[in-house]
């Protein structure tokens, strides 16, 4: 009985080692097979997708387009405030910079896929001129957005993107490289942006407090805030 127990313990230890180390195993759904690291490729089969977790890859594929959509929304708002008849260079600079940041996040995700030989799916790579009247109306409203609403919409977008990135990280929790890429720098930048925007909105509210009945004072307070953003005195 003692010999049987020792043998069972030894077999259990070997099984644990194989699972942890990713050693090949007989179960096609276990061990290394989960990571799609196929080491039996012939020269005529290269290149092809390798060493990835399917649910992580699907989550990233679905998220890339959302990052680009957020970038385009920031771009539309930034272009509005950069116009001469609006002339709010501070928030325009912030919004255009936010567009670049969201685009850089998408590029990081594309780079992750490229390292594994995974092409971007056509549904996420196709961008066409908007003809849907509902979407056109939403974009047109961005051209008339006021200062406070722009800050609030930016905050809501950052919160939405952050929540979605958490879902990507959850899907990639077994892909240590993927989870690391999306935790830092992407998730760190998201929380940094959320904190700055909440503080900026509070500062803006303090400046315009009581100015609703005096449009000239409100415009001056908005201008003062915008100059603070432009000079880096107010973080957004």
UniProtKB/TrEMBL annotation:
Limits of the Ferritin-like diiron domain: 50-208
Keywords attached to this entry: Iron, Iron storage, Metal-binding, Oxidoreductase, Signal
Sites where the protein binds Fe cation: 67, 102, 105, 158, 190
EC number(s) from the headed UniProt entry: 1.16.3.1
PROSITE patterns documented for this protein: FERRITIN_LIKE
Signal peptide: 1-22
GO biological processes: intracellular iron ion homeostasis; iron ion transport
InterPro entries hit by this protein: Ferritin, Ferritin-like, Ferritin-like_diiron, Ferritin-like_SF, Ferritin_DPS_dom
Top EC class, one word: oxidoreductase
Annotated Gene Ontology cellular component terms: cytoplasm
Keyword GTP-binding assigned: no
UniProt GO molecular function: ferric iron binding; ferrous iron binding; ferroxidase activity
Catalytic activity as recorded in UniProt: 4 Fe(2+) + O2 + 4 H(+) = 4 Fe(3+) + 2 H2O
SUPFAM superfamilies according to UniProt: Ferritin-like (SSF47240)
Family recorded in the similarity comment: Belongs to the ferritin family.
Function, in words: Stores iron in a soluble, non-toxic, readily available form. Important for iron homeostasis. Iron is taken up in the ferrous form and deposited as ferric hydroxides after oxidation.
Protein name (record): Ferritin
Species of the source: Meganyctiphanes norvegica
């Amino acid at each position: 009985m003692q010999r049987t127990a020792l043998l069972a313990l030894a077999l259990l230890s070997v099984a644990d080692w194989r699972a942890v180390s990713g050693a090949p195993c007989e179960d096609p759904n276990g061990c290394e097979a989960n990571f799609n690291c196929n080491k039996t490729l012939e020269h005529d089969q290269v290149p092809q997708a390798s060493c990835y977790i399917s649910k992580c890859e699907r989550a990233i594929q679905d998220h890339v387009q959302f990052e680009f959509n957020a970038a385009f929304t920031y771009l539309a708002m930034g272009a509005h405030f950069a116009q001469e008849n609006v002339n709010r260079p501070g928030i325009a600079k912030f919004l255009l910079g936010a567009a670049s940041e969201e685009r850089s996040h998408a590029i990081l995700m594309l780079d992750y896929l490229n390292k594994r030989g995974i092409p971007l799916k056509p549904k996420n790579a196709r961008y066409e001129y908007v003809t849907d009247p509902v979407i056109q109306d939403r974009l047109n409203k961005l051209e008339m957005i006021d200062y406070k609403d722009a800050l609030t919409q930016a905050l809501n977008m950052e919160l939405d993107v952050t929540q979605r990135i958490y879902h990507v990280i959850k899907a990639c929790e077994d892909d240590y490289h993927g989870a690391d890429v999306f935790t830092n720098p992407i998730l760190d930048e998201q929380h940094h942006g959320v904190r700055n925007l909440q503080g900026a909105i509070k500062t803006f509210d303090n400046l315009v407090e009581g100015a609703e009945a005096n449009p000239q004072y409100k415009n001056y307070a908005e201008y003062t805030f915008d100059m603070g953003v432009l000079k880096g005195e107010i973080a957004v």
